[in-house]
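chain below, 249 aa
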Amino acid sequence: MKKLLIYIICSWMFLPLWAEDTRFEQGNDLYSQGQFEEAIESYKSILETNIESAELYFNMANAYYKIGKLPESILNYERALLLKPHDKDIIYNRDLAATQITDKIETVGEFFLVSWFKSFRDSSKSDTWAIISVCCFIVAIFLAALFFLSKKSIVKQISFYGGIVLLVVCFATFNFSGAQKRTLTHRNTAIVFSPSATVKSSPSAQGTELFVLHEGTKVKVLETIGEWNRIEISDGSDGWLPTNAIVVI
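prediction:
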């Protein structure tokens, strides 16, 4: 009776996970059979339970790409990249889809040290950086105790300088973790979903027309006023678009 009760409790606890796995595998099976729209619906049913993963977004993006829905495809590739920033398959497929959109925008160059720093920061997940930060802090405390308790000068020197280095690493990794967490929670990039959207000089339909963007183009959201968003594109140009013209990544 006791074993049966434990089995029932465990089944109740892990049933949602089994259901998720079933829907994911079902979506993959539908995709392999060429039923891409049905696969998308299966993947969406998982997202509706507030469960997300890079693999889920990636497979959904591939399904959208197969039926020719480029904005939806690029949107989900970008969402997958938020969870796995350096995944080569996601990057390749995202870039392939991006070659088929109307807008070809030159990207403003970035100083190589800034690019290297961002690449290094994004090389691990937020949780990984947080764990490294905590570990470094614990070891730094141990070295501080060793510094005060030891009477050997060589031990004091090693513990002192080692503790300083670890505190610097602790501070840096803590900031890396926070930056990645903010990227996931405060998303400020979006994909244009309107077939054609005119960027205005002010948050008003009467604003001067600056340039036109087309579906699939990625933009950065700088600020929001009412039903308008001030956006910036990769060449540095900015202006205002109505909120319903874009979908936040």
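Residues 112-185 form one domain. The chain is about 60% helix and 15% strand.
thats it, cya
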